[in-house]
Amino acid sequence: MNLIEHAEREMRIAGLYDADSDYAGMIPEAVMKMIRPFAEEGHSGMSASLTLEIFNRLARYKTLTAPTCDPSEWMEVSDMCSVEQRPVFQSKRDPSLFSNDGGKTYYSVDDKERTIKNSSPTKP
User: Fold this and answer.
1) CA separation for the pair 48, 38 (Å, rounded)
2) H or E segment at 34?
3) Under the phi-then-psi rule, with left for phi > 0, alpha for psi from -120 to 50, and beta for the rest, what region is 107?
4) Sheet of 117-118, strands arranged across
5) Can you tell me whether residue 74 is helix, strand or coil?
6) Residue 7 Cα distances to 20, 22, 102, angstroms
7) What is the DSSP code string of 18-30?
8) Is 93 helix (H, G, I), strand (E, B) or coil?
9) Which of 7, 43, 62, 89 could form a disulfide with 47 if both were Cys (CB 3.0 to 4.6 A apart)?
10) Measured between alpha carbons, how far is 76 from 93 in angstroms, rounded to an integer?
11) What integer pLDDT is reported at residue 53 of this predicted model?
12) Residue 93 in contact with residue 123, Cβ under 8 Å?
């Protein structure tokens, strides 16, 4: 069984083609629009894993490298955050990252603890 057959079978078993499924059964065709060209690439197990990991990160607006403190990577959004009494910056590279010091340190709204992390130095 090839990848295309596998994907279609699994989505049918999961009921994703059913008219009462999410988005009225339109999700499988959207998935197949990505599966077909991926299957044609003929990846090995290792290259497939690497390709999928990179695609997954990029499709979710995640970065491939750590954010830097380069001011061009951050935009001030203080006027949108009425609760904050200090400047608030949002990463242009990953919209889930926020900073109160222009990008020198940041936290992710996806992190429940909102751990403060240090940005990488700007690249030369």
Assistant:
1) 9
2) helix 27-41
3) beta
4) 74-76, 89-91, 97-99, 105-108, 117-118
5) strand
6) 19, 17, 44
7) STTSGGGGTHHHH
8) coil
9) 43
10) 13
11) 96
12) no
Q: How many CB atoms lie within 10 A of CB 35?
A: 17
Cα dihedral: 100, 102, 107, 110 (round 10): 100
Which stretches in the chain have pLDDT values below 70? 81-84, 123-124
How many residues appear in the chain? 124
Burial of 92 (0-12, 13-18, 19+ CB in 10 A): middle
Q: Are 32 and 4 in contact (CB under 8 A)?
A: yes
Distance CA 49, CA 82 (A): 42
Nearest alpha carbon to residue 97 among 82, 118, 122: 118
Cβ contact 119:68 at 8 Å = yes
Tokens standing for residue 113 = 């603890």
Distance CA 81, CA 66 (A): 24
**CA gap 103, 101 in Å, rounded:** 6
Model confidence, pTM = 0.73
How open is the CA angle 15-20-26, to the nearest 5 degrees?
Answer: 75
